[in-house]
Design goal:
By secondary structure, the chain is α+β, with helices and mostly antiparallel strands. The protein has seven helices and nine strands, in the order αββββααβαβββαβαα. A nine-stranded mixed beta sheet has the order 3-2-6-7-5-8-4-1-9. It is globular. The model has no long low-confidence stretch (mean pLDDT 92).
């Protein structure tokens, strides 16, 4: 039986697992189209929460910003672009902050561009070729109900992550009625384990 997570699960986990420091829902799709004039691109478009930016180091180039609480509350049509997407649509070195683009024919305002960064791993694709919008806007545009991912960090950093993962499984198991020991019920990528292997 497939377990499909919803936005409400983010609030539930935040409430019942106090060891969580930051948490965000994440929707993603490859079939959305960004257009500026005659330039068209279909990057991975993701709908996320405010905490996502801090967790994933979505640091904007000077003059821009990441998504904020009002963007989500008001379901604003704003977009944060990966630097490679921005270079393609607006030209290398251009400052598109404040400019408009079309996302599936709907006008969006660019609020920020990712400062170039190096990623040693990614569960979807590199952030430089992604576009991010408020999760609430994403839900309204695409009528999505089920999340692709929930991303979170612990108050303990790298240490004791397995304890938090176990608690997360217990909360979800109670809601969706599965055995919390069944690791196949909900897939968890614990990057603390990855980090240990990487540094070894």
């Amino acid at each position: 039986r497939r377990i499909r997570l919803e936005t409400a699960d983010v609030a539930l986990l935040k409430q019942l697992v106090p060891e969580i420091a930051l948490i965000s829902e994440e929707y993603s799709r490859w079939d959305a189209v960004l257009r500026v004039g005659d330039k068209v691109r279909s990057p991975l478009v993701s709908g996320v929460g405010v905490d996502y930016g801090e967790m994933r180091n979505e640091i904007p180039v000077a003059g821009g910003r990441w998504l904020n609480a009002r963007d989500l509350a008001e379901k604003r049509r704003v977009v944060f672009l990966g630097d490679k997407v921005s270079d393609f649509l607006f030209g290398e070195g251009a400052d598109p902050v404040g400019e408009s683009l079309l996302l599936n024919g709907v006008p969006f305002r660019v609020i920020g561009v990712l400062r170039a960064k190096i990623q040693n791993s990614s569960y979807n694709t590199r952030d430089q070729v992604r576009a991010f919008i408020p999760s609430t806007t994403y839900e309204g545009m695409f009528g999505e109900r089920y999340l692709n991912d929930i991303v979170l960090t612990t108050r303990w950093g790298w240490s004791r992550s397995q304890e938090v993962v176990a608690k997360v499984r217990e909360v979800l198991a109670d809601k969706y009625v599965f055995d919390p020991a069944d690791e196949d019920a909900v897939n968890v990528w614990d990057s603390a384990e990855f980090f240990d292997e990487f540094t070894a």
